[in-house]
Amino acid sequence: MTKSYDLILRNGQAVLPWGVERTDIGVTAGRIAAMGDLRGVEGETIDCAHLHILPGIIDAHVHLRDPGDPAVETLESGTRAALLGGIATVFDMPNTTPSITSSEQLEWKRGYAQGRAWCDIGFYVGGAKSNLDDLARLEIEPNVCAVKIFAGSSTGDLLVEDDVSLERAMRSGRRPIAYHSEDEYRLQARKPAYEGGGPHRLHAEWRDVECALIGTKRLVALARKTGRPAHILHVSTAEELEFLGQCRDIASVEVLLNHLTQTDEAYDRLGGMAVMNPPIRDARHMEAAWEAMANGTIDVVGSDHAPHSRAAKARPWPATAAGLTGVQTILPLMLDHVSAGRLSLSRLADVMAAGPARIYGAVGKGRLALGYDADFTLVDMGQRRVIEESWIVSPCGWTPFAGHACQGWPMATIIRGHVAMRDDQVLGAPAGRLVTFR
Length: 438
Ligand code: DOR
Ligand code: ZN
Hints:
This protein is α/β, with parallel strands linked by helices. It has helices at about 75-85, 105-115, 135-140, 165-170, 185-190, 200-205, 210-225, 240-245, 255-260, 265-270, 285-295, 310-315, 330-340, 345-360; strands at about 5-15, 20-30, 30-35, 40-45, 50-55, 55-60, 85-90, 120-125, 145-150, 175-180, 230, 250-255, 300, 375-385, 405-415, 420, 425. The chain has two domains: about 5-55 and about 375-385 and about 405-425, Roll (Urease, subunit C, domain 1), CATH 2.30.40.10; about 55-360, TIM Barrel (Alpha-Beta Barrel).
C-alpha cells in the first residue's frame, strides 16, 4: 500500500527548531506526521518551492474586546484579522466589558468562541482584588493561557497595584503571571500635572521610564520573594531590558512590535494613533529592544492588538484612548524587519511561535516537529506589499502602519492541517479551536 497524507507541503524552506532546511512536511489528522523527502507519496499538495514554512505564528497579546463594542472589534473579526495576517493562534486579554474574572465568564467565553473563532485561541483570566484567592483555581481552568494582572491602570477596570494584594495573587497558583507593569502610584502622582492636556507626546512624559522601571523592579522583587514566575508584558525601556536580562531565574520578557518599530516621531505624524500603554519612546529604547532581540533577552514578541474607535482615538490628549490595532500587521512588519537584516527567520519563529508556546505552556503549538499540531504560516519573502487601511478587517478600520511597505508577506495560514487563509482569502467557516495549556 502506498503511503499517503491528508496534506503535504512540498519543497518549502522550513524554519525548524534546529535551522532552516528545505523539506517536505506531511500532515495526518491535523498533526505533523512526517518531515523529509516525500516524493512519490500521495496527498493534497501545496507547492512551497518559493515559500518559507514557519510554525503557525502565535500572537500572545490581543484584546478582542468581546464582550464590548462590536463596532470596534469582535472575537470573530479579530480572529479573521489574525488569519489574514498569518497568525494561527491568539491569546485573548480579559479587560473586556465586563472583564473576565470568574469561572462562569470563562465558561461563557469557551462556548462563545466555538463557531466564531477563525484561528485557535486561548484566554487570559483577569486578576482583580475581588478574586485574588481564586486565581489558583482559575489559572488551571481549560484553555486559560495565564492570569493577567494590570499592576498599573490602563484600558478597563482591572487593577491590582499594591504589594500586599500582588503578593496574595502570586501565592495563589504556580503558573507564570502576565503583568502590565507600570507603577500605579507614580502614574497617579504625576497625572495632575498633565490634566491641562497638550501634544500627544506628553503621554510618554507622563508614563515615563521610571514608571515602567519601578513597576518592573517591584514585581520582580515580589516574584523572587514568593517564587512565582513573572512574565513582564510589553517591556518598553532600555533600563528594564538590562535589569530583566539579570532576572532570567524568575522573569520572562515580552516586547511589542510597536516598540521595535516606532519611536517618538510617531506622535507628530500619527497623533492619537500613536498613543498606547506603555508608551512609544525615543530611539534609545528601540535600539535597546533590538539589542535584547540579538542577545536573547526577549522571549515573546506580541502585537498588543487593542482596537478603539476612531472617535476615542481623536479625543484630545490625555483623554485619547490608549491602544493600537496590530494582530493583522505584526507578521508583515516583522518579516520586513527580517528583510532589513534586524533578525533571522529562526529568531522570528523563536519569539513568535516557540517562545509563546514555552512561556504559556501551549500544548502542541509553536514548533515544526513530529506530533505537533499542523499549524503553519507560509510566507513569501519575495513579496513586497504596502499595508493599506482598506485591508484591515477589524471594524474600527484603522492601523498606525497604513502606507508602510513590507518586504515579506504571509501567503497562507494553516491550522491543524486546515488551510484557513490563502492568498488573502479566508476559507471555509470559523474553524478555530481552544488551545490547551500545561
Ligand atoms: O495601550 C494599551 N491598550 N495598553 C493596555 O495595557 C491596554 C490596551 C487596551 O486594552 O486598550
Ligand atoms: Zn495589552
